[in-house]
Design goal:
By secondary structure, the protein is of the alpha/beta class. The protein has two domains: 224 residues, Phosphoenolpyruvate-binding domains (TIM Barrel, Alpha-Beta Barrel); 53 residues, no CATH class.
C-alpha cells in the first residue's frame, strides 16, 4: 500500500449480513473490514466466508480499501478462510491475535500458497501482552505485513485492566505498538470505541489517537465514520501552516538560519510539513471519489 493510503476510518462489517455488505457500498469510510470472526456465529461462518470473498472480489466498493478478517490461527475455520480470502484478492487479510514473527511468516506463506495476488498484504491484529512485547519482531517479520490493527478490547481483558476515559491502563501498550510499527514502516490503526452513543467520548479518543500518531481508527458503527475522518485528516490550519513553512524554507535556502512564525526551521520540520501536505492531498483525492 502507498504510504499515504488514507486509513482514517476502518469499519468492521459482519460478512454474514447481506444488507450490511450492501450498505457498506455507500458509507464514506476509508476502509472496510469484512468480518468472519467475532461478528459471525459459528454456524454462519461458511456462508459468510463466501459472501466476504464475493464482496472483496466484486470491485463494488469504489475507493474504499477492502479487507477481510479471517478467524484466528488454530480455529477450525482459519485455513479455509485464508484460502478463500487470498483467492478473492482484497487489499489486506486481517488476522486476529497474531502473537509472533513466526506466525506472520506462517500466514504469509499460507497466503502465497493460496495464490494471494501481490497487492494483498497482511494486517496483524495486536491484542495480547505477548504480541505487544514482541511487537518490533512481528512488525519486521515480513515485507508483506502492511499494518498493525490494535485489538484494545482483548488487550484490556488480557491485562485484567479496565476501560477508562483516557485509556491510561493501556497507553504503554499502544505506544509500544506505535513505536514498532513506525520503526518497520507500516500503518498502525487504533482500536474501537465501544459506546456508539457516546459521541463526545468517541471524538476525544479519536483526537487522542491522532495526537499519539495512529493512522486511523477501527469502528463498529457507520455513525462513527464522519468523526474519525475529520479527526485523522490534517486540519485547514495545519495544511496552511505546512505550506507556509515549506515556502519559508524554499525562500531561505542559502541564507543561513530559516525561521517561520518566529521559530527555527530544520529539515525535520520540512519533512513533517511535506507529509502533512501529502496526506491532505491523498484525503482530498479519496473524498472526491
Amino acid at each position: 500500500m502507498s504510504e499515504f493510503t488514507p486509513l482514517r476510518s476502518v469499519l468492521y462489517m459482519p460478512s454474514s449480513n447481506e444488507r450490511a455488505l450492501e450498505k457498506a457500498k455507500s458509507i464514506a469510510c476509508d476502509a472496510l473490514i469484512l468480518d468472519l470472526e467475532d461478528a459471525v456465529a459459528p454456524d454462519a461462518k461458511p456462508v459468510a466466508r463466501e459472501a466476504a470473498a464475493a464482496a472483496a472480489a466484486s470491485g463494488d466498493y469504489g475507493r474504499r480499501t477492502v479487507t477481510i478478517r479471517v478467524n484466528g490461527i488454530g480455529t477450525e475455520w482459519h485455513d479455509d478462510d485464508i484460502v478463500a480470502a487470498s483467492q478473492a484478492g482484497p487489499a489486506a487479510i486481517v488476522v486476529p491475535k497474531v502473537g509472533s514473527a513466526a506466525e506472520v511468516q506462517q500466514l504469509v506463506a499460507a497466503m502465497e500458497k493460496a495464490g494471494a495476488p501481490d497487492h494483498t498484504v497482511l494486517w496483524a491484529m495486536v491484542e495480547t501482552p505477548g504480541a505487544i512485547l514482541d511487537a518490533l519482531a512481528i512488525a519486521r517479520a515480513s515485507e508483506r505485513l502492511g499494518a498493525f490493527v490494535l485489538g484494545t478490547n482483548d488487550l484490556v481483558k488480557e491485562l485484567y485492566a479496565e476501560h477508562v476515559p483516557g485509556r491510561a491502563p493501556i497507553l504503554p501498550s499502544l505506544h509500544t505498538a506505535l513505536l514498532a510499527g513506525r520503526a518497520a514502516g507500516i500503518a498502525v490503526i487504533d482500536g474501537v470505541y465501544n459506546d456508539v452513543k457516546d459521541t463526545e467520548g468517541f471524538l476525544a479518543e479519536c483526537e487522542q489517537g491522532r495526537q499519539m500518531g495512529f493512522d486511523g481508527k477501527t469502528l463498529i458503527h457507520p455513525g462513527q465514520v464522519e468523526g474519525a475522518n475529520a479527526a485523522f485528516a490534517p486540519s485547514e490550519a495545519a495544511v496552511e501552516d505546512a505550506r507556509g513553512l515549506i515556502a519559508a524554507w524554499e525562500a531561505g535556502k542559502g541564507a543561513g538560519v530559516v525561521t517561520y512564525n518566529g521559530k527555527m526551521v530544520e529539515n525535520l520540520h520540512v519533512e513533517s510539513a511535506r507529509r502533512t501536505l501529502a496526506i491532505d492531498e491523498a484525503v482530498l483525492a479519496l473524498d472526491a471519489g
